[in-house]
Amino acid sequence: MTTRAPLLVLAIGNPSRGDDALGPLFLERVSVALATEIASGAIELVTDFQLQIEHALDLEGRRRVVFVDASVRAAPPFEFSRLSAERDGSSSTHAMSPGAVLATYRGISGEPPESWVLAIRGERFELGEPLSDPAEAHLEAALAFFVAEARGRAPAPPWGRRLEIEGTVQGVGFRPWVYRTALRLGLTGQVWNTPRGVTIEAFGPESAAEALVRAVQSDAPPAARVRALSSSPIPWREEGDFTIASSEAGGGATMVLPPDLATCAACLREVDAADDRHHGYAFTSCTACGPRFAIAEALPYDRATTTMAAFTPCAACAGEYAHPEDRRFHAETVACAACGPRVWLADVRGEELAVAEPLEAAAALLLDGKILGLKGLGAFHLVCDATNAAAVVELRRRKRRDAQPFAVMVLDVDAAEALAEFDDASRAAVTSAARPIVLVPARSSSSLAGDVNGPSRRTGVVLPYTPLHHLLTERVARPLVVTSGNPTGGPAVIDHAAARALLGGLVDAFLLHDRPIVRRVEDSVVAASAGGTRVVRRARGLAPAPIRLPASAREPVLAVGGHMKNTACLVVGDLAYLTPHLGDLDLVESEAAWRRDVEGFEQLLGLRANVLAHDLHPEYASTRYALARPARRRIGVQHHVAHVLAAVAELGLREPVIGVVFDGTGWGTDGTSWGAEILLVDDGRWQRVSSFRALPLAGGERAIKEVWRVAFAALCEAFGRTEALALAPRFDVFGGPSRRSLETIATMVATGVSTVKARGMGRWFDAIGALALSLPRAGFDGHVALALEEAADRGEVDAYPVGLPSALALDEELGAAHEIDLRPTVRAVANELLSGSPPGRVAARFHRTVVEATASVVARVIGATGLCRVVLSGGSFQNRILERDLTSRLGVERVVTAREVPLNDGGIALGQALGAVLALASESR
Length: 925
Prior knowledge:
By secondary structure, this protein is of the alpha/beta class.
């Protein structure tokens, strides 16, 4: 058998396509430069237009293989990198990649030989063009390197290596980790923050540089997220050692500032250890934890660009910051009681109280049933003893929050398990570095006051995420209600003056500190759901980490979101940066705070978008802002299409989908209110193929709060005016309104005067919930729907009668023939309730009716279009029964929903952003 040359050089390229000739030309010149080695049988050269599966056979019997190709992405003059079968490290544009060839060899013959890719930078690839001048220079550099390397006398090393890293790599201990890793590998050079992320220049043996690259890809600190990594050779220079250099100034939206991180276990141990200098210190942190986004005034993330700049580290803290082996090496928030922020107790006027131990005094107030205003990490909280019924009732009275559930903070997981039932996914969420509020099934035996959870069977549990929260919770040793520090409907308060003015009448005292909050960041909320957890509110710990879109923007895009549960979204390239939850925009002060937050977010990322995406509703504050602000282009995205596109964006879908969107309300293209829609969505184009019949909202927006109006309108639609008026006295929900009021509503429904037609699924749940549960008013958004979900019996039930559409609006405007009609359902519900059927059965049957009717229509859409992917979105799908049963009915293999972005209006800014990006792309085709 013929012995094969131990080194195979396999070059790829088309000699007639400009710089694509780099591979073949490289082999021509190598054949001259290494003629002796080739003649001796040490090296074999092979060239082809593209890699084919047969080339795997050429690897047999080799000790080493070098693939050579032109690359448009390689850093000039070339990149020389190790290759594995698991990872395609090539920039090849040919039929098979080198990594695929190795994988094929592995499948045939076992472990492939040591393999490398020499990617030579090319610039022009037009047919018939000669090699470009830059490519000629790159070819000569690559040839000189390879000839020396093949003869075993390449410079040691011939090049340094520059790594450009993008992602969440600032404020997470990344540079200190690089420093320690480089020292361990024997490399010299430096690492520094840039507006785009982090740059490393490393000098030393090639094997050590490759080891650094692998470490960055697989062993970075837990909070780091490497989104993009480029590696290129640079001229060798002598460096005495490896250092952390000063950061480059300037913002840049490709750099990802990490979200705020919960206190790590190591810092908590120090806070609790009596003999540690951090004992009892409320602002202890390290490179793995602490505030980030909430205190960032500019980028890159350094102490000088945060609100920690005002606190000069003491000698001990400076020593920790400077010591390479310390956990606080280059920790920008390093501080202690001698040099950092301090805590004090204040009265309702903000005057400091003369107490020796502010935390002890604050705990005593809470144990005495008082309400505390607590300045936290990214906003103020209102806090009270969650086991004290009188304190909880008083907090509800002062905040005018009659029914909405409160979140509860407890010291640790054991305390959380005593209040609620956790599975593995919800336990992982509540203990994660994001430390969100987690909605989990409540235990009947918990110590919480009865009014904490409102109408919900779930408890919102959060663990302390700063040492301040930890120390306070530890001292009280009871569950604490921890709710947003804001007047009802207003923005969360972040500064002392606003706290005095807006919260002074809601609290008995303040627990304050002197570290300023720059960016409003409320608590994130996630819910336990089938298959894991789902984000309900994306804020602290989760935002502003970006989401990669399945399309890329030509220029920055700002999507301004909706009116309720607002977030905004800034797109740069294919990255979408969602702001933290910004809240509802009903009040003038909320709108003003929102404008500051959105424009401050742009400023932080170093840009101002000239393309604005917005909702179609003309009265939304966000829409008015987008229409008034100077911009090159404004793109309106329909509300429910945005809901579907939000899921498409998060999941990276690149296929047409069927969208089922259930929510409360959203402006349609016909100027009416939609909210129970079945859509076809394809690359930004869409068609509305079916919808639930609209309900009249007598009195417009007033009916959303006074849900008895919706319930009576539903009776009028189902039975007619006369019979509805006759039935009304038999339902407790109509005990408040007078006969005259009911007659007025009936007239409004019949004539359409002062009445809005609304298709929202939330309004149908309001109507049925009001009738079944005798709830005349909604205490908060989604109140009645939540109560109906919680009331539903868990056993199997039959659906009610329902009118199904006779056709689908595939090529025409939607009309009555395409609607799902719930009037037969309302008649059946009313008759069953009047016959004495329990509300739980009615609630369960209504859920089953919506599921079966929707599944029937979607099945017809699948049959008519051949589409197989169904997206469920909209706030109504936070209803676990709807989401679970419709998914089961349609098939789990075809149904998808967003999980990292809220299904409610907190996600539509992401959908608007993708809609705008797709619109811009279609214009350029």
